[in-house]
């Protein structure tokens, strides 16, 4: 009874937090196609101006990869009215910070300023969209920056090529098959005209969403948005390509040698549906059940109880077109990767044949709900969620309603989705091993 009351109390508490965190917003579209979302929070001491463009790795030419990530860097180089090298000085000089990031599906830029600097943030993002300077000096500079980034975060990092090798072997026709940072050889070979053409096609108002979040006066914000963004011309409408993958019907085997590791990793990866689907949310719950912390099924069984692995995990990478469900383990001592894989498979078989307990269902629903609430607990998190739900999901209201999907997921659905997607004949088995050349040295 005591445990039941504690579970009920936690559930009610989390539910109350979720309701209290309801995000209010207003959205509209300018004549040039730019979608605008306003979230007014009078209690915030700051203001966020952000623009998310619907362009990512999947929009690249297979022979010219890395362009989307390249522009994440290049569009800080300067504009007709912001001299080269001055962007970050202007932001920091006005008490702000800024950043950008790229995924396979979109590119996101943002500034965070004290709330009295809304006009500056809007002007800078309009400048980035309307007047960027794309010249050879900027291209050459950022090319070197990206080469260093690739060395520091991928090539010289233990298990740094883990995700890229999964993508390479799990997708056969979809652009998700290459890494987001792209090929340095492709970037070296690209001409200035190639970059200019890529920019002209994708970095247009009718392929973007502007989010303003924080403490501002709404009518004044709308006036400035019209003033700075209305003059930007609408671009040629973009027709997105559709890439359909043939289902995997037998196990795909691959091996990768990493010069930066001493302990091999066994990886089992499954291709999963779009993040827009209910099944993708169920797979997220399954990953939470299997490896969401040290009390999870796999960690407790393989690391704690049987002491077969240094680490074991599962995570679901949901994307706009397809997702990846990845299981991995680092064997302990002389334990074979095959024996760990059998333990993982046994746990999945249990999921596929038996209903999880009501207590386990409640536990993962509470965990997911808590993560959902925390994601929108900061102004930056709210701005990102608003942009993402509009641009990639096509429904901004999901920032408030998406949690209801998780709340209605049943034990039967968890069993059935595990049975549908997590079968040995539908997966990639990647042996991620130390380099033989290094071992011989």
UniProtKB/TrEMBL annotation:
Gene Ontology biological process terms from the UniProt entry: proteolysis
MF terms in GO: metal ion binding; metallopeptidase activity
Domain Peptidase M16 C-terminal, first and last residues per copy: 192-367
Segments forming domain Peptidase M16 N-terminal: 36-155
Pfam families per UniProt: Peptidase_M16 (PF00675), Peptidase_M16_C (PF05193)
Region forming the signal peptide: 1-20
Cross-referenced InterPro entries: Metalloenz_LuxS/M16, Pept_M16_N, Peptidase_M16, Peptidase_M16_C
Superkingdom: Bacteria
Keyword Heme among record annotations: no
Keywords: Hydrolase, Metalloprotease, Protease, Signal, Zinc
Family from the record: Belongs to the peptidase M16 family.
PANTHER family found in the cross-reference section: NARDILYSIN, PROTEIN YHJJ
Protein name as annotated: Insulinase family protein
Organism of this sequence: Flavobacterium luteum
């Amino acid at each position: 009874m005591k445990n039941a009351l504690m579970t009920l109390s936690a559930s009610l508490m989390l539910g109350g937090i979720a309701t209290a965190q309801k995000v209010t917003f207003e959205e509209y579209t300018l004549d040039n196609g730019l979608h605008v979302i306003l979230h007014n929070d009078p209690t915030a001491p700051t203001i966020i101006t952000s623009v998310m463009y619907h362009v990512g790795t999947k929009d690249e030419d297979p022979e010219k990869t890395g362009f989307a990530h390249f522009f994440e860097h290049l569009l800080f180089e300067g504009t007709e009215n912001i001299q080269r090298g001055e962007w970050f000085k202007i932001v920091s000089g006005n008490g702000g910070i800024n950043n950008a990031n790229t995924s396979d599906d979109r590119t996101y830029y943002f500034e965070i300023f004290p709330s009295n600097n809304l006009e500056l943030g809007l002007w800078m993002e309009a400048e980035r969209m309307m007047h960027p300077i794309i010249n050879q000096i900027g291209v050459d500079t950022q090319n070197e920056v990206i080469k260093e980034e690739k060395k520091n975060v991928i090539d010289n990092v233990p298990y740094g090529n883990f995700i890229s090798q999964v993508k390479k072997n799990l997708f056969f026709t979809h652009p998700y098959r290459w890494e987001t940072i792209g090929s340095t050889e492709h970037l070296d070979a690209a001409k200035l005209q190639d970059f200019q053409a890529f920019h002209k096609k994708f970095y247009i108002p009718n392929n973007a969403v502007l989010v303003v979040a924080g403490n501002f006066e709404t009518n004044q914000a709308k006036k400035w948005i019209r003033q700075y963004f209305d003059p930007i011309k609408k671009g040629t409408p973009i027709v997105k390509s559709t890439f359909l993958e043939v289902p995997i019907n037998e196990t795909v085997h691959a091996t990768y040698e990493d010069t930066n590791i001493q302990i091999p990793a066994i990886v089992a990866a499954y291709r999963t549906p779009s993040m827009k689907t209910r099944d993708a949310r169920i797979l997220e719950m399954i990953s939470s059940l299997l490896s969401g912390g040290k009390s999870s099924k796999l960690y407790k069984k393989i690391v704690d109880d049987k002491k077969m692995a240094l680490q074991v995990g599962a995570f679901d990478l949901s994307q706009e077109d397809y997702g990846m469900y990845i299981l991995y383990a680092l064997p302990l001592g002389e334990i074979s990767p095959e024996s760990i894989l059998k333990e993982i498979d046994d746990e999945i078989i249990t999921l596929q044949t038996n209903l999880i307990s009501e207590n386990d269902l409640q536990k993962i629903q509470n965990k997911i709900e808590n993560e959902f609430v925390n994601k929108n607990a900061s102004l930056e998190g709210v701005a990102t969620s608003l942009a993402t739900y509009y641009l990639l999901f096509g429904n901004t209201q999901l920032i408030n309603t998406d949690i209801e999907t998780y709340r209605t997921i049943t034990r039967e659905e968890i069993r059935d989705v595990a049975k549908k997607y997590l079968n040995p004949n539908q997966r990639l088995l990647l042996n991620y091993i130390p380099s033989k050349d290094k071992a011989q040295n």
